[in-house]
Amino acid sequence: MSAVSGGGSTSLEVEVRPPSPFRLGRGSADRTLRVQGGVATRLLTVDRAPVLARAWMRGPGRVVLRAAAVDPAALTVTPHGEELRPAGRTELATAIERMRFMLGVDEDLSAFHQRFRRDPLVGPIIRRRPDFRPGRRPWPWEALAQAVCGQLIEASRAALIERRIVGRWGARLGEGRGALRDAPSAKLIAGRAPAELESMDLSGGRSVALRKLAVEVARGRCDLGSSDSDPRLLAIPQVGPWTIRCLALSGRGDMDALPAGDLGYIKLVGLLAGLGRRATVAEVEEFYAPYEPYRGLVGSLTLAGLHRMVSEGPRLPLAA
Question: Model pTM?
Answer without folding.
Answer: 0.91
